[in-house]
Write a structure and sequence with these properties.
This is Protein ALP1-like. This protein has 72 residues and is mostly helical. The protein is built from 3 helices and no strands.
């Protein structure tokens, strides 16, 4: 009987974790208006145009951060 309770608890926790992950994906999508897959597809297309090099005075802002800022 304890095994059944443990199985039920594990199933419940798995369901809660899955729902939380879905909520996080939904929030991310709402934040920039597109799925993660589309974001990286767009980034791959424009990366050569927005990528900068590090200098000895400062580190360049990563392309991902540049795109996120632009999409806000």
């Amino acid at each position: 009987m304890e095994s059944s309770d443990s199985d039920s608890e594990i199933l419940f926790l798995a369901t809660v974790i899955e729902a939380e992950e879905e909520e996080q994906r939904s929030k991310k999508k709402k934040k920039n208006g597109m799925s993660q897959e589309k974001f990286y597809e767009l980034l791959d297309m424009i990366r050569p145009d927005i990528e900068k090099q590090d200098t000895k005075f400062r580190l360049a802002i990563p392309s991902e951060e540049r795109l996120v800022t632009c999409l806000r």
